[in-house]
Fold this protein.
Amino acid sequence: MKTSSTMRTPVKLPSMPSERAVTKTYQSVNMARSHLEGDNLIFADRDGFNRALQHGFFLLKVPSYMDFEYGDRFAYHFFEPATAGHLLPYTGFKSCTFSNGYEGYFDRKYDQWENFYIEQKNWNLIPPEVATLGRQMAHVGICILHSVLNHVGIPRSDWELVTSGLSEGQGHQMLAFNHFRSDKATRGSKFHRDSGWVTVLRSTERGLLAYIDDELLAIDPVPDYLIINFGSSIEVLTENLMMNVRANVHGVVRTERNGQRDRMSYAMFLDSNLAGNIYKYGPQGPIRVQSVEEFAVQEVSRTYDDNDGAL
């Protein structure tokens, strides 16, 4: 079996704990806090930027122009049958399919997860207010990408190449909505790494865990903040630099409810175009190591399979 140079170092993890166990057992990460000044990422603490790169997660103050009302509504209802009235534009997406294999509704066999993924070119199919929020989340993520590439020392002239155009507002911009079915007695989601560059996450409840500094810790939402994490593409690019970016393993616990509303979350995934390439950066500049398409197959297959062991 051919070994890929982009495979991450295996991490042996325990089985995903329950929601009750997390509340009693797992400490919260002291995530760095940040905000945007114009398009520039500013951290509250002097060591905040470097801590964010090391942890792979940080908090971003929600920009004043963002309104989550319609995104939350979509996340709570996209999986329901089409409903008349004000919920009509937010329901009926369980039957929405695309031919490309990575958009549309997904019922995850081994997880409580059910998802709806939709790329930017198809946002005309979702409520316009949700599409607007998607564009805002993508803009925030690309601003973060610019700041990180600058911080680790990647020359501006190489950004478009190494990100397959994402740095210029192109690439792969996908909204992902998650509903965690408490009536399904399995894990919330598998431990995994995101495959792309930057993930902008809207989450309102505890339950997200990450493997940081050799231990599982809780990534807890904070009111008025988005959770940001880095994917494997940026980890591969920066792994040989003096300052590198971690794409830490994370997953969601089994949601347990007693008549209460199920957990939801949604994210903006920012990734390279599938026609592009994955690069590592060295003294002589960017070195191509793999096609994005090959990399995506490798990473995605490990995200949704039934293997709870090392990844």
The radius of gyration is 19 Å. Helices lie at 19-25, 48-55, 69-77, 128-152, 156-162, 232-238, 292-304. The CA atoms of residues 210 and 250 lie 4 Å apart. Residues 128-152 form the longest helix (25 residues).
